[in-house]
Automatic annotation (TrEMBL):
<keyword id="KW-0255">Endonuclease</keyword>
<feature type="domain" description="Putative restriction endonuclease">
    <location>
        <begin position="13"/>
        <end position="121"/>
    </location>
</feature>
<keyword id="KW-0540">Nuclease</keyword>
<keyword id="KW-0378">Hydrolase</keyword>
<dbReference type="InterPro" id="IPR011335">
    <property type="entry name" value="Restrct_endonuc-II-like"/>
</dbReference>
<dbReference type="InterPro" id="IPR012296">
    <property type="entry name" value="Nuclease_put_TT1808"/>
</dbReference>
<dbReference type="Pfam" id="PF05685">
    <property type="entry name" value="Uma2"/>
</dbReference>
<protein>
    <submittedName>
        <fullName>Uma2 family endonuclease</fullName>
    </submittedName>
</protein>
<dbReference type="InterPro" id="IPR008538">
    <property type="entry name" value="Uma2"/>
</dbReference>
<dbReference type="GO" id="GO:0004519">
    <property type="term" value="F:endonuclease activity"/>
</dbReference>
C-alpha cells in the first residue's frame, strides 16, 4: 500500500501516519500500517491521535489477516473509526459505517478498481495488489 501515493493524492489535506500508535482507549493502542489523520499544527507531537482524529486506517493483511479481521477490525469499529482498508494479496476490503464492534458496510475491490476515502473528495485511489512476498 503506497504511502507515497496516499501522500501525493491526499497529503495536502491529511497527515499520512505510518506504523504509529493510535490511542483507541486507555487499554487499546494499536499500530496500523497506515492511517490518514486530520491535520494538526503540532503533527501529534503533544499527544497520540485518538479515534476522532482518524479518517482512515489501512492494514496490509498479507501475513496478519486473521489478527486484522478478528481483533483489530472490531477494535476500530468499536472506537468509531469511520473507515478501514484491509489490503490482501488480490483484493482491497473497504469497511465503513461502524456500529458497535463491527462495520455495517463492506466493499470488495479487485485490481484496477478505485475508491475514494470517506470525508475526502477525489481523486480516487487506484487499487493495485502488492507485489512480492510478505515479510515473515
Amino acid at each position: 500500500m503506497g504511502k507515497v501515493l496516499l501522500e501525493r493524492l491526499y497529503g495536502d489535506r491529511v497527515l499520512v501516519y505510518v506504523q504509529n500508535p493510535i490511542l483507541l482507549s486507555p487499554h487499546s493502542l494499536p499500530q496500523p500500517d497506515l492511517a490518514l489523520l486530520k491535520p494538526r499544527p503540532d503533527f501529534y507531537r503533544s499527544g497520540l491521535p485518538r479515534p476522532e482524529d482518524v479518517l482512515l486506517v489501512v492494514e496490509v493483511s498479507l501475513s496478519t489477516r486473521e489478527l486484522d479481521q478478528k481483533v483489530k477490525l472490531p477494535l476500530y469499529a468499536g472506537a468509531g473509526i469511520p473507515e478501514v482498508w484491509l489490503v490482501g494479496e488480490e483484493t482491497l476490503e473497504v469497511y465503513r459505517k461502524p456500529k458497535g464492534g463491527h462495520y455495517r458496510l463492506r466493499l470488495l475491490l479487485e485490481a484496477g478498481e478505485e475508491v475514494v476515502p470517506l470525508g475526502l473528495e477525489g481523486p480516487p485511489f487506484p487499487f493495485n495488489p502488492p507485489r512480492g512476498t510478505p515479510p515473515a
